[in-house]
Design a protein that fits this description.
It is built from 16 helices and eleven strands. By secondary structure, it is of the alpha/beta class.
Amino acid sequence: MELLTAFMLLFTASVSFAFAKLIFRRGETCYMLDYECYKGNKEMKLNTEECAKIVSRNKNLRIEDYRFLLQTIVNSGLGEETFGPKNIISGEEQCPKYVDCLSELELIFYDTLDNIFARSNISPSQVDILVVNVSLLSAVPSLTSRIINHYNMREDVKAFNLSGMGCSASLIAIDLVQHLFKTQKKRLAVVVSTESMAGNWYCGRERSMMLSNCIFRVGGCSMLLTNDRARKNQAILKLNCLVRTQFGANDDAYNCCMQVEDDDGYAGFRLTKLLTKAAARSLSKNFQVLLPKVLPHWEIIRYAVTRKTGSKINLKTGIEHFCIHPGGRAVIDEVGASLGLDEYDLEPARMTLHRFGNTSAGGLWYVLGYMEAKKRLKKGDRILMISLGAGFKCNNCVWEVTRDMNQPNVWKDVIENYPPKKMINPFIEKYGWINDEVVGFIRPEEIAKMLGFA
């Protein structure tokens, strides 16, 4: 039976490989020319003190909520340098304004796109396809229209605005682009991936919804793609394959990440304990399609014959680098353990979570930036990108490095300090007293005074 299974997997892999070769012969390759991640300014930093200020302003919280938040933040894996929305830091989380949501996004859009256009010597008028993904804000006019207006793009630019796609939206946008490339030759495409944080801060006290405040931060990325082989020498990456898996038919998976209102009417994003289970199942289903396309045939056969003994498939036979969505420490740990990855493989995702937090759909590109800043990415290397998001969706792809990558990026000012020798969270040192039993008899408003911000 094992030999029959191995033969079927080998046959599937052979057919997939032949099909891929046919596609490339038709000139449908997707190249990445450049990418640019957003870095906030000093006024946007959410360090220990700023987080404590925000927590102290929430009059709905009780002592048990303070303790839960302390434990969550300490265990989150985030450091002192992440960026938050300006309106939240200035104390407007209870009544966010629409203009704050738009200004937050436009700052990310134009900062990243200006740098890409300047560095690539490509004019906005040369762009043929524009895709923007922001899950939590659907504006009118659309966000793509705002970019088109700002840069005075052509009337025939193909614009797509994706919302509600969650943290895996970035690869969905790239998948859309590569399908458009199959019918349109010599095209340039821009993908912008970010999230709206300014209008989505949770002010209630449901614990599964308080989690999002602890891990989600401001960030985003813009990418420049092409299928024009004349620009092949400008490219830094080539897309080898991309596989999307949708688990929305499963109720547990569908409900594990959801934007809702709590019983008191406070809107937010609910993250349940079923998230890691949904992630594991969707990742397994995705790999059943993806891995035969990227791993050598002999490794597929070896795994098929020995898997009943507990043997894991060796991804490193076909992959050099692992770009894991920095969704949280538990997600990174779970993916690493299930795939048999070591700390070297997980370091880029862990350090991205520490430095920038979970920036939703833009997170993968900060992980890629870390690898580039560490000069890990050499010509011919293959990068597996693993993205997980609400729905529940798992979207993974494999890129091939087309030239050594060592350009300065968002990590340039801090890369020498990573990984830090000690990952000590300052919250426990400053606010560990909240766990003392005597504090349980103190009123919430007195707790705020003790925090020093009332």
